[in-house]
Write a structure and sequence with these properties.
Number of strands: 4
Bound molecules: fe (ii) ion
Radius of gyration: 17 Å
Strand content: 5-15%
Number of helices: 10
Order of helices and strands: HHHEHEHHHEEHHH
Structural class: mainly alpha
């Protein structure tokens, strides 16, 4: 999720050239490749079927960062969603407005090799690999739009509650399936460490209860 638009970011989202093409360096493409190949090893059998199906539909390249239009064309066809290029950090108003319009915000930068395992700000790998597969699922796509509509009409206090709900679902949600517990949260599925941890013995897991989620402060929103 996007956070405080006032907080300075060390990353700058890339602008497209006149043909609408975003250029990345070889190192940035290699970072994508290392991230996607590492993550594809851990998501089978751990992510929910809807997510894995979405990944198949997206058919993301391994050796280069995809252009946003490649992702948008699949989302448009499946659920009428798109991805939208945004600066590294955006405010809540913009964030909810985009979701309400079936547009998922993506900051077009990728983490530096020094921050390969963890970075504070959501980069293009997190947004596309973590979140876009679920947006090919009609029920999830509708839920996310509804979330944006509610957020647009919410007071600042209500928005803080909505941010918690997002944290416990879109970012870190797990789901019980006939085959066992699976992951659908993009914050988990874009990190190998989180993917293994979330289904392991260490974390305390609770059945989803909307009120509990709304009442539980999160580390960050
Ligand atoms: Fe996210």
């Amino acid at each position: 999720m996007k956070k405080d638009a006032k907080k300075p970011s060390k990353y700058v989202a890339r602008q497209p050239d006149e043909q609408g093409f975003i250029q990345y360096s070889d190192i940035e493409h290699q970072t994508w490749q290392r991230l996607i190949e590492r993550q594809l090893k851990v998501v089978p059998g751990r992510a929910c079927d809807e997510y894995l199906h979405g990944l198949e539909l997206l058919d993301l390249p391994h050796d280069r960062i995809p252009q946003l239009e490649e992702v948008s064309s699949v989302l448009r066809r499946e659920t009428g969603w798109e991805v939208a290029r945004v600066p590294a950090l955006i405010g809540f108003e913009t964030f909810f407005g985009l979701l309400a319009d079936r547009k998922f915000p993506v900051a077009t930068f990728i983490r530096t090799p020094e921050e390969f395992d963890y970075l504070q700000e959501p980069d293009i790998f997190h947004e596309i690999f973590g979140h876009c597969a679920m947006l090919t699922n009609p029920a999830f796509a509708n839920f996310t739009q509804k979330y944006g509509q509610l957020g647009l009409n919410a007071t600042p206090k209500e928005r803080a509650y909505l941010a918690r709900l997002y944290w416990f679902t879109v970012e870190f949600g797990l789901i019980n399936t006939a085959d066992g517990l699976r992951i659908y949260g993009g914050g988990i599925l874009s990190s190998p460490k989180e993917t293994l941890y979330a289904l392991g013995h260490e974390p305390e897991r609770y059945d989803f209860d909307a009120l509990d989620a709304l009442r539980t402060p999160t580390a960050s929103i």
